[in-house]
């Protein structure tokens, strides 16, 4: 599934990384606990999270994740957007709950890590 398809399916606003919309991703991970994000290894999934602060961006930097979907109507700060841009990440905002977003992606063929 392309990043563009993900953003359309989730009705998500792309804040940065619009130049990467044609890239393909086939796995996703959902968590608000950044300690869990650090345990997923080298899979590089799309991250769905309701944690909307600089810790999210920095954790993704450390874990080599580069596509982040902020859920539950959370709004990224200018600092978050700037850091994500500097790191070449895709950052999106989505109004849906984690349950709905995960369900939509799963039904569309996105796979979980485990």
Offer a concise description of the structure.
By secondary structure, the chain is of the alpha/beta class. It has helices at residues 3-9, 34-37, 54-63, 78-86, 98-107; strands at residues 13-16, 27-30, 46-49, 67-70, 90-93, 111-112.
Give the beta-strand count.
6
Mean pLDDT: 96
Q: Given the helix and strand composition, which structural class is it? A: alpha/beta
- Share in helix: 25-40%
Report the β-strand fraction as a percent range. Answer: 15-25%
Chain oligomer state: single chain
Helix and strand element order:
HEEHEHEHEHE
Largest sheet: 6 strands, mixed
The unreliable regions are none
Radius of gyration: 12 Å
Shape: globular
Produce the secondary structure layout.
Layout: H1 3-9, E1 13-16, E2 27-30, H2 34-37, E3 46-49, H3 54-63, E4 67-70, H4 78-86, E5 90-93, H5 98-107, E6 111-112
Parallel strand pairs: 2-3, 2-6, 3-4, 4-5
Antiparallel strand pairs: 1-5
